[in-house]
């Protein structure tokens, strides 16, 4: 019987493969208490680290760490973003304003949400980006992404006229994002193009605005763009309709034309590019109409400043900075606005002293406002003061450099009446009643406003002129009676 053959290799018993413990096995699932304890420990550690970093690490070190972390992550991005804020210090950023106008022509074609508005007396719809919206613009084959960013700043509780209200302010900016290889193109070509295009759009769509100061509490606590509130200026006055001496009108127009053409001259002689006018004369002589005619002639906005609304000299400076270039700043009835009488005149005995006004604007503050360092914060500005009593003003206000041109707005002259007759009645100097009217005007003092009121009473030229003649004859009679009584 053959012997049993022994295998060359003995089979070893197979070992059972060990698997790592399953953390999700029933016996390995941590209890809820363990999870909560671990989370609490982690949160406590994070708070300790945050507290230590806040209290012990210097601000410079924290800023250094944050900046380096930010640079590390940005190094993996090819995008560059420029931030264009609405204000640069106290003045408005012109690039922001240009972008706002320029993007108004691009918005609705590339956005689902945009803002449209049309003010009272306006004829065109204004389109602009809504808050926190994005749009894409293409320039020279390159895409640029614009994003409007609006964020609320800290609210302030303000008490105004006995009522408490929360004033909230907004900070606005644009973010312009693009590939970083186009940075030079943006700075050298794209942004200059936006500035140039916005200027062209403004000139095409410009309508004259009359600006007035906002509410006191809004102006003092919000500031910025809310300092002035605009409305469309639709005043029909022009130099052709003004009831003024023809030579005087020609002199004013020549002075205005010379002013707007002399930017380089003002810079060469070291003067701020501004011009001051004083319009003085009795009420109703056309001071406000002349201001409107100047604005229409130059296409300048008007800023109507009420000095009694200004509390301090600092407020006065902020108001000046907030006015735009190519504008007319008007201060009407300056002799009544503040105590700016002649400092060399002694108070008369027996004359009651007026109570102190709430405004603390001083004469020196006003002088610095119109002729000091702050007056150079802007270009191509005209400042117009009006008064019924020139003799009540301090001589310091009247000198050249502050009030360069003094214009006496007198009573209605024969040439002024000729203009009114053409405007109101469509008659010329050949009408038989015109010569009689001129003779009566030479004997009495009536304002253009009074003459115009008489001409408005009847649409028939003959009847209107007869009514005016009766009015003038009555005025002459009354003045003669006053003179007789004075002599007696």
TrEMBL record:
Keywords in alphabetical order: ATP-binding, Hydrolase, Magnesium, Nucleotide-binding
GO biological process, alphabetically ordered: response to stress
Key word Magnesium present: yes
Pfam families reported for this sequence: AAA, AAA_assoc, AAA_lid_At3g28540
Recorded GO MF terms: ATP binding; ATP hydrolysis activity
Source organism of the structure: Gossypium gossypioides (Mexican cotton)
Source organism superkingdom: Eukaryota
Cofactor: Mg(2+)
Name assigned to this protein: AAA+ ATPase domain-containing protein
Region of interest (Disordered), ranges: 1-26
Catalytic activity: ATP + H2O = ADP + phosphate + H(+)
Matching SMART domains: AAA (SM00382)
Keyword presence, Transmembrane: no
Domain AAA+ ATPase: 273-413
